[in-house]
Each structure stands twice: as C-alpha cells, then as structure tokens.
Amino acid sequence: DPGAAACAALARLRRRWSRRWLAPVAFVLALLVILLATAVARPSSSSSGHAALGAGTTARSRPAAGGGAASPAAAPAPAAAVPAGWGTFSDPGTGYRIASPPGWHRETSGPYHRMVLADGDGRAFQIESARPPLGDPMALWTALAASFAKGHRGYHKIHLGRGRYHGMSAAVWEFTHPQGGRTLHKVDVTFTSPKGQWGYAVLFTAPARLWPSSQVLVRAFEQGFIPLE
After folding, report:
1. pTM above the 0.70 mark?
2. Which residues on adjacent β-strands are paired with residue 131?
3. What distance in Å separates the CA atoms of residue 111 and residue 109, rounded to the nearest whole number?
4. Distances in Å between the alpha carbon of 223 and those of 12, 13, 21, 77, 226?
5. Confidence bin at 76 (pLDDT 50/70/90)
C-alpha cells in the first residue's frame, strides 16, 4: 500500500529528527539549570573577610557594594565639621579620606587596605575598601550575620537592614557578642562610593559599658569619612 509506506517513512523521519534535536535541547536546558543554580548559590564574590573588625575583635566581614544592575548610590551628604583637633588621613590607593581623634593609634595591615584606629580602652574604628566592590551590601551582610551567629555563642542581633552612611545607601548591622570576658557592642556598615568605583566596610567597636558614651564618636567618624571616587 503506497499510502501506508509513505506514512511509515514519515514516522521514521520524525523519529530521526526527534533524536537529532533532543540531545542539543537537553544539553541547553541542563546548562541553563547549572548557571541558575550557580548564580543563586554564589555568595556575591564574598564570604567573610573584613577580618578582625576592630582591634582585637573576632567579627569578620567584607567591604561590599552594589551589584551590577543596582541603582547608583546616593551622593554623600555635605561634610559636617569634625571635632576640633582631629587629624585627617588620605591615601588615593585606599579610596577614602578619614578624620581621627588625637591620641588614637593607627595601624594599617592585612587585605582590603585595612586601617584600624584604636584608643587603648577597647574602642576601635576599622575601615576596609575594595575596588571594584565585591557584591550587594544587603545580601553580603545578611549572609555574614547568619554565619557569624552560628559561630559565636552569646551573639545578639540588634539591627540588620538598609540604612545610610554619610548620605550613601548602606547595609547596617548592629550587634553584641561576648569576647575576652566582656561584651562588645558593634555597628558594621557596608556601602559603595557614589560613582560605584569602591566598596567600603566600616566598623565601630566598643565595650558595651562604653557604648552610650561613644555615640558622639560614632557620628564624628561617619562625618569624617569621605569617599574619593
């Protein structure tokens, strides 16, 4: 029967083309699944690396900042006058200028242009910077806080959310944890420079008993921080 023979031939042709296209399509679908899983699982180019946040602390974080399509950071607010007698430090290689109080010891070491200012009583201000930024601030700090909580008994989260630092959009994480027989109170902030060239992580640490009296310092350090790009 010519009609039956033609139908059989058409069926064989369909099966041949089906097999020919099935493997490439399956490969493309598998590749898309792998890429999607990698994008979701990857920790925005960062894990925990803003090491020793503050002199002698154990918190770890990374300078962070806006991912690719994120909206640009707001321009910094006009600089307010820092307290009289404070000095300034600036290095284009770090991407910022900072003011510091007299008598505070400055130390620079480690990755990410780390600089620590300390007063000798347990209070410290630490800055780290990276160019280009390492990821989205809120995503990085959310992951960091969860990791830190698992490894530090007595950790207490006070606040974790979006905020501003010297007029720039930021992720703000405030918490306490015991260390060396005392409780430390910290506020850890990450953000990008207005032009998106640099990512910053700044941390202020103080013994819990000194936290209320340290708020003037916290605000002064914020006003004294100026991104260079």
Report:
1. no
2. none
3. 7
4. 77, 75, 63, 9, 8
5. very low
